[in-house]
Amino acid sequence: MSDSKKQMKFSVISGLFWKFAERMSSQLVSVIVTIILARLLMPSDYGTVTLVTIFITIANVFVNDGFGVALIQKKDADDLDFSSVFYFGIAFSIFLYLIIFFGVAPIVADFYNMPILVPVLRVLALQLPIASINSVQQAYVSRKMIFKKFFYATISGTLISAIVGITMAYFGMGVWALVAQYLTNTVINTFTLRTIIGWRPSLQFSLERLKGLFRYGWKLLIQSLMVTIYGNLRSLVIGKVYSANDLAYYDRGSYYPNLIVVNVDAAMSSALFPAMSHEQASVERVKAITRRAIKMSSYIMSPLLVGFAACGTTFVSVLLTDKWLPIVPFLQIICINLLFRPAQTASLQAIKAVGRSDLVLKMDIPIRLFGLTALIVSVQFGTIYIALSEVLVGILGVILYSLGCKKTIGYSLKRLYWDFVSNVLQALVMGVIVFAVGYLNINDILLLFLQIIIGAVAYIVISIVCRNDNFYYLLNTVKEFSGRKK
Known about the structure:
single chain, mainly alpha, 19 helices, 0% strand
């Protein structure tokens, strides 16, 4: 292996290590906080905040997506590019905040007949200008592949916001405890990252540079907007057609499986896209990185998702109490749907890295149209069927993204599917074992512990018996990385 390839491999592994450490540590704290808050707050409190965060998430797409990705992908991006995006982002985010404050907030409150949504939405939307600053900082860190900086910033925001949220919930502040937690997290994360990266915008602005970045980024912005609106549309419909409790069960049922995916998937996306962008001149190198990413991420995520689905009832009963047991079916369905995510993520990053943002948009339109049709049909039958329709959308997504991957980097469909399906099949065998253990008539806490241990041991044994190359690659990579760090 050449020195440049070794250096790139080390950069990718280092990025994955720090990004994964960031996600794992922050999500570990988030899980603990969520469990505590679930005991202190009512499902209706979560339902209320979920409705609000949907609109903030959609607004954040305009602030965070498009330009940030373009800054990472552009080969010769300099300080003028970053400064231009920085100033434009602040101005545009303030404009969005005023629209939400005077227009969106009252309309949303009237639509759902919930007056509390007006002040909650106006306060939570304050994170938009802060998020615009952070998006440029994150693009700078990603481009430089100095992901250790993310670790410190995220941990700071997560810990401080956790203290704020739990304290306010303990004193009976309900919805406002969640609002304060979300807002504090954004503020501390942004301030910490700004302090440690050493980058500051210069007093210069170029409309021409902004236009150049926009030509690449607008297609990804539209695609991300479609994904975000579509992803939150189910929650909007459930909140309107059904009750706040139904929305809370659906939202929390999705939340816990997504914690697993966020840890691995976000780490993979953050580390892979800049690495692929550096190698965009070599299709074979991008293809090699993509294939290894799909194999490794599915090898890690599949047993976590399958195992979580198998012990979902025990998990909810022990950690969240029986009042949250209605989330179990949603949790299990979402786990199934997320099994397709590794192939989708790696394929999407590869297509973006070689500059085909137009293809990303073309593939995503039919996926969202199909999803909208599935939602219209399933909403008539109940929230469970709404969740099931997501599985169908996930299957279509992996098919179309894999077609795009074959077209851009020559990664054959047969090879791509086998690279992640083989891991899923092994995880399913482990899942059967974990599910069977659940029938033991013992204390729930001991049962949950036993299911986790037996599941982990079973997956390792299955990997060895089946001679799964991902298992040995992971071991060798950890040894190599540890040795180089020393």
